[in-house]
Write a structure and sequence with these properties.
The chain has 398 residues and is α/β, with parallel strands linked by helices. The chain has three domains: 98 residues, Rossmann fold (3-Layer(aba) Sandwich), CATH 3.40.50.720; 68 residues, Dna Ligase, domain 1, CATH 3.30.1490; 154 residues, ATP-grasp fold, B domain (D-amino Acid Aminotransferase, Chain A, domain 1, 2-Layer Sandwich), CATH 3.30.470. The protein contains 14 helices and 15 strands. The radius of gyration is 21 Å and the shape is globular.
């Protein structure tokens, strides 16, 4: 194997260390561009070098100039990997320029933005007959009032674009059960001059009805590597990211995804989610991330392949040899899952015995690795400090 080609990871948040570990264990030189010098993700021993960039305040043209210079300084036409919605869209929008200094999959014009927008994704699903929850896109408060008079409840109120929700937790999705609650939440979450909310059909079921597919598609939109799994618990509970997941085969989800991506001409790493609707027997597409996802290390096959490694091999002209699905493999986010478990327990959705059984089969954590302990130590310390601050706020002044 030739591991000489470097990789640059755009990691503005608390992710990226999984990529550094996966490729670094192959002795690939991995460089991190972080938004916070104190990020636990930046502590991994597998980074060849870390640099800091103020993603939130710098202009896109400044980031472009910086990355072009970084790519030329590193040399060897590094592979560029974005890790969140903002950096993914940035790479798609400036692909022509970035290709002068980096390697990454070229996408059809506008596809990344269409897949990243829940509105455009909904219309793509309708066009290609992919099951998805029925959705309404209100553009005014009057539209929401009208839905309250005639629409079905409960309903999901959620952002169309994820970026606002990432900046402000109060704008994340919520389940509303009547017209009054809908209007109250809408008034808190929406920005009237920039509508970004939608009303999505509520599909009953717990986290275990949420299925995921992680895969890598080559320049001809062929899936060179792909695995499925499902969520066991989420953080925040019921509506958030995976805090405990399990790798399980699902031929329907895999077949639906690969056909859909072939039809739209997608290339590169994909992280996509479905919810099983027991009422209809359909797996309904919920979200598409046209990039690497935070749970990608759940999806590791019998040969140790994951989406980051598949992309590296394909982009460097080396064969991608995928193995079998590791049925029952579990992956956990150590600082999220205990908090979620308490909520599920209080809601009588999880017993102590069920919690103990759920931990069996965990093969990997998001933060803890014996050969790379610093990220776990850093996130554990942050969790302690956060808990102490929260405790002081609840007690109030002495």
């Amino acid at each position: 194997m030739n591991e000489s080609t470097p990789v640059v990871v755009l990691a503005p948040g608390y992710v990226g260390h999984g990529i550094a570990r996966s490729l670094g264990r192959w002795h690939v030189p991995v460089y991190g561009v972080h938004g916070d010098a104190r990020s636990p993700a930046a502590r991994s021993r597998y980074w060849r070098q870390n640099v800091i960039w103020q993603f939130d305040t710098a202009r896109p043209d400044q980031l472009l100039d910086y990355l072009m210079e970084l790519g030329r300084r590193i040399g060897g036409m590094p592979i560029l990997i974005p890790t969140d919605d903002t950096t993914c869209l940035f790479v798609a929008d400036h692909g022509a320029d970035l290709h002068e200094a980096f390697r990454f999959p070229s996408q059809p014009a506008g596809l990344v933005r269409a897949l990243s927008s829940k509105r455009e994704m909904y219309y793509l699903c309708k066009r290609y007959a992919v099951p998805t929850p029925e959705t309404v896109f209100p553009v005014s408060r009057a539209d929401v009032i009208a839905y309250g008079d005639t629409g079905a409840f409960p309903v999901m109120l959620k952002p169309i674009e994820n970026r606002a929700a990432q900046r402000d937790p109060s704008r994340r999705m919520v389940v509303v059960r009547d017209a009054r609650a809908l209007l109250e939440h809408y008034d808190v979450m929406e920005t009237p001059n920039d509508p970004n909310l939608m009303l999505q059909e509520y599909i009953p079921g717990g986290p275990d009805t949420v299925w995921m597919f992680n895969g890598y598609f080559d320049a001809d939109s062929r899936c060179l590597f792909g695995l499925t799994g499902k969520k066991i618990r989420q953080y925040p509970p019921y509506t958030g990211v995976t805090s405990l997941g399990i790798c399980l085969e699902n031929e329907t989800v895999e077949r639906t995804t690969t056909a859909f991506m072939q039809a739209v001409g997608f290339r590169g790493i994909l992280d996509i989610g479905y919810r099983y609707d027991a009422r209809t027997g359909d797996y309904k597409l919920l979200d598409v991330n046209p990039r690497i996802g935070s749970t990608f290390r759940l999806f590791v096959d019998s040969l140790g392949m994951d989406v980051a490694r598949a992309m590296y091999l394909d982009m460097t002209g080396q064969p991608v040899r995928a193995g079998r699905s590791r049925e029952g493999r579990k992956w956990v986010v150590e600082n999220f899952d205990p908090v979620s478990s308490v909520t599920y327990y209080r809601d009588r959705r999880l017993s102590a015995a069920e919690w103990i059984r759920s931990l069996r089969g965990i093969e990997e954590g998001s933060w803890l690795a014996l050969d790379d302990p610093a990220p776990f130590a850093a996130v554990a310390w942050r969790s302690v400090v956060t808990a102490l601050k929260h405790g002081r706020r609840r007690r109030g002044p002495a």
